[in-house]
Amino acid sequence: MAKNFAGIAERYARDVVAGKTPACRWVRLACKRHLDDLTASKGKAYPYRFDAAAAAKACTFIELLPHTKGKWAAKGERLVLSPWQVFKTVVLFGWLRKSDGYRRFRTALILEPRKNGKSAWAAAVGLYMLTMDGEHGSEVYSGATTEKQAWEVFRPARLMALKSPQLASAVGLTVNASNLHMLGNESRFEPLIGKPGDGSSPHCALIDEYHEHETDDMVSTMVTGMGAREQPLLLVITTAGANVAGPCYQMVTEARRMLEGITDDPEMFALMYGIDGPVGKPEDDDYQPGDDWTKPETLRKANPNFDVSVKGEFLLSQQRDAINNARKASAFRTKHLNEWVFAKEAYFNIAKWQACANPSLKMSDFAGMPCTVGLDLASKVDIAAAVFLFRKPMGGFAAFGRFYLPEKTIELEATGNYATWQRAGRLIQTDGEMIDHGRILEDLVDASKTYTIESIGYDPAQATMLVTEMMAEGLPVVEFRHTVLTMSEPMKEVEALIRSGKIEHDGDPCFTWQMGNVVAREDAKDNVYPRKERAENKIDAAVALIMAMGRQMAGDRDMDISDFLSNPIVAMARG
């Protein structure tokens, strides 16, 4: 009896949404989206329809393929899709456009922790796209940064084809050492390594471990090459990683916004397994603290193939090692719980920093209010940062950053994130090969007309000429040397405010990236100092924030009795 794959997928989605099957927020949103789309598709105006037969065709094909490793391969068994694997297959291949009958989803982002069978599933999808999708001259690529990684998907696909002589015979498939080839229509499936040329016309691109890609060269080349295809598929399969400035994290961020309904991308499917981070602020009634990564139940939540392809005993032992050895914690949380890490030993809790984000927050909301400014001018060819720090009337702080980069640096930057942030207004581009300090001066002078700038902290080693010009403009500049003595206490204060959710910001991704790059270790006297692991991990925004906080703390200490007595509240109390 044929399986009801569409029913299995719908049941899985309903169990996830109802909380019967443990899953993180992003999986719940993906499942809810499918269920909502099923309802919406009944309306005439909805542009997509769900085809259970098309979904079943892909699932049935995959379950006819053989295992290629482990005990199942030794027994000659075929693949069996777990309900969550049925779900992602059904959604990808079952949704069609009403206008022409072609597939709806052109991009799919699948985040799964290690050992959850993503390579075998992707290999099977690649074979389907090569042989069963009706595309003449189909080109299927398994792409990665290294040959070894590219073969992680291509190798099982090749072995599946070798062990499926009936399939090879039926479609005229030749299995070669480094590619699969269909002579009848010149279709092929092969690995692709590094930066590809522009001659490809992929029908399907399987991008493995995208978090290891420093740039989006491979993905952008694949996407632009898909223009001549009727229903191409870009399938990205990856774990989380540490490069939050890379293209993978950018894609994850875009997928999250899509699932939350902030942006609309009806042709993108995202299924991202992991654990839940904190939501909201600790003082809020609806605050959710997030999952405790040390608890055994998080393992099942993040690993949908728990006790199937990845043994529970193995994950529990890895978890124990990570709890007992701080050096192993980062790798465990990234590879087995799909948590993104910033620096390997990041000083600031970035999950809590992100929880402090308020996208509706605007600097203009604080017009006329006092603030301090931290100004970090570490390099003339790298990021210059000015951070404005306001005390909120009801307690806590609000921080806003302005970041500057010369045009040449943006052009040469490898990942493309600088250009993205510049287009989004998060980086201010100055002409030429060096930062134009005149533009920074102009912005500070303009800001002083809108906000009450109490002091601007600067490091004299970096800003001699600019400071002279700021003094001439009457700006309240104050020396703030970059030493352990001056940086340690305000750095600890910033960290404490982040942990307690008492420092708001507007969610600037460039600001967040720099905060996540900060590393520090306490010395024998419990002092800390902001550092970075690599030259490309910029921390200028964090340094500027620490300086601004230092000036806030200095302002508290500088208040004398006359300031106290002149305070309007005190004056009223005195009558």
Structure explained in plain terms:
The chain has 575 residues and is an alpha/beta fold. The protein has 23 helices and 19 strands. A hairpin with a 4-residue loop joins strand 6 (180-182) and strand 7.
Main features:
575 residues; Rossmann fold; Nucleotidyltransferase, domain 5; 23 helices; disordered C terminus
> What is the multimeric organization of the chains shown?
single chain
Work out the number of β strands: 19
- Main sheet? 8 strands, mixed
CATH superfamily of the largest domain: P-loop containing nucleotide triphosphate hydrolases
The secondary-structure class comes to alpha/beta
List the helices and strands and how they pair.
Blueprint: H1 5-18, H2 25-40, E1 48-50, H3 52-63, H4 70-74, H5 83-94, E2 95-97, E3 107-111, H6 118-131, E4 139-144, H7 147-162, H8 165-171, E5 173-175, E6 180-182, E7 187-193, E8 204-208, H9 217-225, E9 233-238, H10 247-259, E10 268-272, H11 297-302, H12 312-324, H13 326-337, H14 350-355, E11 370-376, E12 384-391, E13 397-406, H15 407-412, H16 417-423, E14 428-430, H17 437-450, E15 452-458, H18 464-472, E16 477-479, H19 484-499, E17 503-504, H20 509-516, E18 518-519, E19 531-532, H21 540-558, H22 561-566, H23 568-574
Parallel strand pairs: 3-9, 3-10, 4-7, 4-8, 8-9, 11-15, 13-14, 13-17, 15-16
Antiparallel strand pairs: 1-2, 5-6, 6-7, 11-12, 12-13, 18-19
Helix pairs in contact: 1-2, 1-5, 3-5, 6-7, 12-13, 19-21
